[in-house]
Design brief:
about 35% helix; Rossmann fold; 6-stranded mixed beta sheet; alpha/beta; elongated
Length: about 325
């Protein structure tokens, strides 16, 4: 008798978990190859635990019609708790919302307004990427990565024949430790908010007060790589990755880390799968619209110092 009661108590959470309506995430099949199948499974598992309900992908072909997407959703679950769509499937989201108005429908719009969607009402929910928070956090992390590469210049004995004035006039070597790791490059794209430069620069200065942050959008504007502390790439600047420059790089994107160059130390991911948990929670609270920061991913094998890793982790959660 006691054993049966104990078994029922232990089984109760599992029964509740599987009895609850799932959260569905519309996912294009080609995305999985770029996002990483193992990574998607990991994200799905962690999101299910965090929400204490199943999180299920709804796999659709690239370019499939909204009607076929809705059919795939209803096949996955007759009564999902909510359904998440990327902005590329905004039309399907609108069609689903019209057919099932009582089921929360979430569109993650990224940095782009979607004019064809009606105003959000708590059942149709539209969440953008909080690029302001992302820029501040990326500046903090760039400052940590860059300043960790700077070492004090070694003290050398002055030659007897060298006077003070000669020493002042003589420039230090361009690649000496005192002159490296002082410039932080942010590759601009057209979605940067007007206050984005200041937020990024502010984050860098908090970690490296003597630094210089520059903003470029063309490869020929890039300074000598020897003077660069860290590079932050948004949607632009892919050509820089082809240079394989030995400079720590922060990337705004969602590619499988296994596909990224070794110089990419950190990634800010605002894909649907990265933001499942905060988006679903906002939708279940009936919050019609809002902004969600990207999910920071720190690639620990590329950060040799544990203290630096902990600093990055902490800074990636700060608010401006």
């Amino acid at each position: 008798m006691a054993a049966g009661v104990a078994g029922a108590v232990l089984a109760a959470p599992f029964v509740v978990f599987y009895a609850r309506s799932p959260v569905l995430v519309v996912t294009e099949a080609p995305l999985i190859a770029l996002y990483g199948e193992a990574r998607l499974k990991k994200d799905r598992s962690s999101a299910s635990r965090a929400l204490f309900r199943r999180v299920k992908p709804v796999l659709v072909a690239d370019g499939v019609s909204p009607d076929m997407i809705i059919f795939a959703i209803t096949e996955a679950s007759r009564r999902p708790r909510c359904v998440l769509f990327a902005r590329s499937h905004a039309q399907a989201a609108l069609r689903f919302h019209e057919q099932f108005p009582a089921i929360p429908t979430v569109v993650l719009s990224g940095l782009i307004n979607i004019p064809e969607l009606p105003p959000p009402d708590g059942f149709l929910c539209i969440y953008g990427t909080d690029r302001a928070v992302d820029l501040y956090r990326s500046g903090l992390c760039a400052g940590i990565l860059g300043s960790s590469r700077r070492k004090p210049a070694p003290q050398t004995e002055k030659q007897p024949e060298q006077t003070e004035k000669q020493a002042e006039k003589q420039p230090a070597a361009a690649d000496s430790p005192a002159n490296t790791a002082k410039t932080y490059v942010f590759w601009q794209d057209r979605f940067m908010p007007t206050d984005g430069r200041e937020l990024f620069s502010r984050g860098v200065r908090e970690q490296d007060p003597e630094s210089n942050a520059i903003f470029i959008n063309l490869a020929n504007q890039l300074p000598d790589v020897k003077g660069i502390a860290c590079v932050t790439l948004t949607g632009a600047g892919a050509e820089y990755l082809e240079k394989n420059a030995p400079v720590p790089t922060i990337l705004f994107g969602w590619l499988d880390p296994a596909m990224l160059p070794r110089e990419v130390v950190m990634q800010f991911d605002d894909s649907v799968w990265a933001l499942v948990v905060p988006a679903a929670r906002l939708a279940l609270q009936k919050q019609a619209e809002g902004k969600i920061p990207s999910k920071p991913l720190i690639f620990s094998p590329k950060v040799a110092d544990n203290s630096i890793f902990r600093m990055l982790e902490k800074s990636a959660k700060k608010m401006p």
